Amino acid sequence: MKIRSPRYAREIPQRYRYEAAKTKSGKIFFPPRMIYPGGETSEKHILAQTGKVLTWTILQTGPAEYSDMAPYAMAIVELDDGARFTSMLVDVDLATVKTGMRVRIEFRKIRQEGHEGLLCYGYKVVPE
Amino acid sequence: MRDVAVIGVGLQKWGERWDRSLRDLYVEAAQNAINDAGVDHIDSMYIGCMSGGLFAAQEHLASLMADYLGVTPAAAARVESACASGGLAMRLGWMEVASGLSDIVLVGGVEKMTDVTGDEATFALATAADTEWEGYQGVTFPALYAMMARAHMEKYGTTIEQMSHVSVKNHANGALNPDAQYPFTVTLETVMNSTMVSDPLRLLHCSPITDGGAAVILVPADLARSKFKKRPLVTVVGSGHATDTIALHSRADFTSIKATEVAAQKAYQMAGVGPKDIDFAEVHDCFAIAEIMVTEALGFFEKGQGGPAAEKGLTALTGSKPINTSGGLKSKGHPVGATGVAQIIEVTRQLWGEAGKRQLKNPRRGLTQNMGGSGGSTLVHILERKD
User: Fold this and answer.
1) Alpha carbon of A96: minimum distance to chain B alpha carbons (Å)
2) According to CATH, what is the number of the domain A48-127?
3) Topology (CATH) of B129-206+237-382
4) Known catalytic residue: B49?
5) DSSP string covering B102-120
6) What confidence tens digit (pLDDT) does each residue in B300-343 have?
7) Inter-chain touch B247–A86, beta carbons under 8 Å
8) Could you tell me if the ipTM is greater than 0.85?
9) Which of residues 67-126 of A touch B (CB under 8 A)?
10) In the Cβ-directed half-sphere of A96, how many Cα atoms lie within 13 Å?
11) Which stretches of B13-163 are assigned E, i.e. beta strand?
12) pTM of the model as a whole
C-alpha cells in the first residue's frame, strides 16, 4: 500500500514552483483552490523562500515509503509572507530543531517508487 | 422531532481477532445488540467504517452486512468520517428515528485493522489527513498529534508527565473492562519510558490498532416506554456535529479543537445543559494529548488546564469529572469505525447501572465525543437517564 503518484501530479505546479494564490484581502492559499471564502478573487503569488518553524516533531517511524528515512523531523512552517504548510525538515542536526527556528524552502526528491520507478519531487525545508 | 431511546447494546472482546473477519465482527456485535434489546426486526441500519477498502479490500458494506446479518431487504448505509465514522452512524440513526422515518434502527460500527502490516495500517490511517499536502510530505497521525502536543506544551506548559497520567488513568479503567484490548494497569514510569514514536509522544501515549465491532438499537422513547421496559429509560438529549479544515497547518491555532468546541455547543444547546451538568464522558483519546485538548474543548476545564486536571485525578473514576470509564481508546482499543458507537454503549451502560466494576455512583447524564483525523470532524452526543 502506498501513496499513489496520480498522473496529474506532474501538473501540480505548487510542488515544483512554489506557486500559491493571494486573495483580494491578502490571505495566501497554498495550494491555490478552486474557490475562496466569500467568493473572493485571487491572483498568483510566488511564495516567500524563508520562514520559521511553528511546531515540529521527530518521527522514529514513518509511513511505508518513508520509514527508511527515520528518524526524521517534520514541521509546520510559516513563511515570511504568512503561507503555512507541512514539510520535512532536513539537513539538520535533530538535536537542534526548535520552535521558531529559521528555515528555507528547497526543491527536493520526496520519495521514489522502488528502484526503477518514478521519482517524486516536491519541497522540503532546511535551516536558513 | 421525537425523543430517541437506546434500548440495546452489543460488542465483543476487542483486540487482534484473527478468529473474526470484518463481517463476523460486525454481525456478532449487531446480533448481540438485537438480542440485548429484544427486537424481532430492524427497519434500517447505519454502519460506521473508515476503510473497509484499505484494511480488508471490501467496500459495499451496506449489502454485505445486511446479507450476513440476515436482514435484507432492510435499508442500510455505510458512512465514513474517518475515526468519527461510528459517531456519524449514531447521528444519522438518531435523525432517522427522531424524524419519524423509522422506528427501529440499528447503529453499528466496525473495523478490521490487523490483517495488514503495521506500515499499511499507518498508511490507511494517514488517509484521514490531507493525502496530497500532509501525507505526501511524510507525516503520520502520531506526528500530527505530536505537533499539537508540542504547541500545547509551549503555550500552556502542559507536561509529558500530565499526558502520561491520562494513559495511566485510562489503563486503570480499562483493567476493569473485560471487553478491553489491553485490560491491564500501567505505571507512570512505564508510560514515560516507553518507546519514542514521534517526539514527544511515546508508545503508551498512543491508542493501538484493533479489530472490533459495536452496535446499539435506537427506538422512539414512546415505544421504549410501552414495549421495552426492562431497564431505566436512556434517551439522546443532544447531538452536535461540526467540521474543520482537513490539514492541521490550515488552522489558526494548533492547541484547540474547534470542531469539537462547535459540536459541543450545538449538543449543549439542544440538551439545554452546560459542561457542568455532564456527570461523565467518553472522549476520543486517540493520543493522550487529544484527551487533554478535548476536555478543554468540551468546556470541562479552562484552556491549558486539561493537563493539570488529569494529573490531579479529576478525570479518574473517583474524580469530579470521570473521563473514559471504559478505558478509552488507549486501553479498550480503537477499531476506528466502531469507536464512536462503543462510546455510546459505555455511556448507556453507566446510565443503566450495568457498567460492572467501573460503575459510577448513580450518574444521570453522560456525553460522548468522537473525532476524525486531527480534528477535522467531530460528533458529540449527550445521553440522559429519564426516571
Assistant:
1) 13
2) 2.40.50
3) Peroxisomal Thiolase; Chain A, domain 1 (3.40.47)
4) no
5) -S-EEEEEEEE-TTS-HHH
6) 999 999 999 999 999 999 999 999 999 999 999 999 999 999 99
7) yes
8) yes
9) 67, 69, 72, 74-76, 84-88, 99, 110, 120, 122, 124
10) 10
11) 44-48, 75-79, 105-112
12) 0.97
